[in-house]
């Protein structure tokens, strides 16, 4: 089974849809500079089949940012889709299709991936199972006994380890010192893990079962062991207590208790009744009664101690009498009232001062306003006086005196002057109206003339266009006739010559000119003469065609001239229409005054001479009229200024009335008012300071009152508490009650202490029988625990010795099995490594399994595997270990050899495919022709399809030239660059179905 087609949409650098056709391609070369996206082809195949990109697994990068969908598509604020689809073709020609899809919603979150196999939609898990079934070789898994074995196929690991190799995987396999991981990988790929896997599981199961049984037994023994320890402590403690009782007999202990009870009754007059005959012997009932008695006395001790604490605490509170404290508190309250009265008086004085200060502040404002008003009034009076003097100067002007002599009254002059202004304006409008009408008529006449010229030229243009069309037809017809005639003559001439040559025996006679000729040059001269005569016969027709073309050119020139004239006339018409529209608008505006102008014209002469007459009068008296206008304006200004002055005087009077008693301050300097304000401010500051002092004194007195209130409350509270316990208590008897309480407490504590000692003796005599029973339980429990400890030791030996011995034997057997497999593959690896890039000294590769580790060792001689297997792991590490001693280039080549061997030997899949992603950064590290020979063997001998990428153009060209395949069997994909809009790819594998999203 091989890959036939790869379709990519919006995957990583691919923005849009890209199709790659691999059908009938045994070798596909992906070529392009580093960083241009070659690895994305391999990533797409890996992701489509496994859902993973191994070089991003195990890092946090894939959680930090989007590394699957094209970044430009991902940033769009809409739902987006990306997918990769692969079409496989089996050797029988059956096609299978696998598609993996990932969608993004508007919020920028990825939805769960979708998988389809042969166009059947599946969820992620079912899709992975179906792809595994499609790719895996059933023969590799047919012997598995575990029904869940199919799910154990790690498709991503298998695929990346045997089918698709990247640069990172090459170096990691060799350079990273992880022999255990190498062994695990080889074990799975070679299929060895299925041999003995069930037995290993059975060993692990037995070990786990034994551990569970061991753990259960340990848990079951926890309670008995804890009881065993408790019994041991209890027996020891009881024996110690009994030994402390000395040699007292039971009667001695009973007598001591009896005497103690009698003493308690005589001393404390207790109400507890004990029959004295009850103390003749000791038993549990007696012990119980005595314990109750002791509890009563312990309670009485607590009561006495509480009373003692209460009496001691109340001693400080009850030092003063209640009457003294109340008297002092009342005196302080009276003093506070007096201080409050004094503070209120000070506050009233302060408020008056503040009010007075505010009034003075407002007085400053009024004074400023008053001074401003006075200045305004004085300026108004000065302004009126100046303007009146100016009027008198203007009235004495010679031009005004002349007017007075001519018109007697100024009023008549002004009326006549204004009337002349109006008449002159009307005359101007009448004359303008006449000119406007004349212009409108002239423009309309021009427009009409241009329209007529336009129509005439348009008709001429139509005739010329028809004439041009006729000339073109004649020229085409004449050219065709001339061409046919020439071709006919030539064909006729050729035909005659051909017939002559075929029929005539003597070829020395020319059919064309009829001349005998002996030499070729004579024939050519006669033929040339015939052609010249033929051309002379055709000259008349050619002259006619020339005349027709000349007429056509003239006609074209006339048409162009007519078209230019039409454009010129049309522009002139448009300009005149635009000008006419402006004149008509002005005409419509002037129509509003047309009746007024007609009425004026009936009464007056309308002429330029009349207009000049009016202008002359107005010019002569223009200065006089302007002087009258200035006098009028000055008189109006004087009236306005007088009005303002009257208003200002009223405001001055109002300010004086508002100031009342302090009117005289309005005319004084401001500093007099400021002195009064400062005196009030100083007084206010003193009042404020005195108020603060009074408040502090009141606060201090209030604090003392609060303390007295608290003391009175404490006095009453302690008195009540004590009276609850001592009803007859009086504060004056406090010391006596403290002394009585101490005596009673001493007596009770002494009795309780003695009683406790007697109880210990009684308990010891009672516990002797109990110790005997405890010893029996202790011995029995000890024997039980010893038996169980023996079972635990057997479990420990089974788990740590027998199971581990069995497991190590199994690992050794399995390791030998892997070694036998690798012995065969080592020869193949050895062969390839020697071909591509042998080491100067250590030329042979050995894969040596040890336990569950796999070491890569290079030796001077071949087939050293059996000898190396006898070494322990430390000795193996001391050999020429490739992971420690190879350069990066050598390690890459060695890993490539191992990878090719794994691909050759793998049995898990029927996919005949090998992918190698840019294996060599430096071609100097390898023998290129030997590597090409290895690839040739894979293609022809193993019949596999190879997909290989390289950044080196020379290597790519060498691959195409030396691989030994037909040109149509070699596919090429060339990456020329990419940006956020598209990937630039070329080659014979690129389908035309490419849609870049811009």
Question: What's the topology here?
Answer:
Layout: E1 2-9, E2 16-21, E3 27-31, H1 38-50, H2 61-64, H3 71-74, E4 80-89, E5 95-104, E6 114-117, E7 120-122, H4 124-135, H5 138-141, H6 155-162, E8 164-165, H7 167-175, H8 179-190, H9 197-244, H10 250-268, H11 284-317, H12 322-395, H13 398-407, H14 410-503, H15 520-590, H16 594-603, H17 608-620, H18 622-659, H19 670-725, H20 734-836, E9 844-850, E10 853-859, H21 865-869, H22 873-877, H23 882-885, H24 888-905, E11 913-917, H25 928-940, E12 945-950, H26 953-962, E13 970-978, E14 983-986, E15 995-996
Parallel strand pairs: 3-12, 3-13, 8-11, 11-12
Antiparallel strand pairs: 1-2, 1-4, 2-15, 4-5, 5-6, 6-7, 9-10, 13-14
Describe this entry's structure for a reader.
The protein is an alpha/beta fold. It has five domains: 1-163 and 910-998, Rossmann fold; 205-243 and 785-806; 247-322 and 716-775; 323-393 and 650-715; 449-603. 69% of the residues lie in helices and 9% in strands. The strands form three sheets. A seven-stranded antiparallel β-sheet has the order 7-6-5-4-1-2-15, with helices on one face. Strands 8-11-12-3-13-14 form a six-stranded mixed β-sheet, sandwiched between helices. Helix 25 (928-940) links the parallel strand 11 (913-917) and strand 12 (945-950). It is flat.
| Helical segment count | 26
CATH class of the largest domain: Alpha Beta
Helix % is: 55-70%
Write the CATH architecture name of the largest domain.
Answer: 3-Layer(aba) Sandwich
Strand content: 5-15%
Mean pLDDT: 77
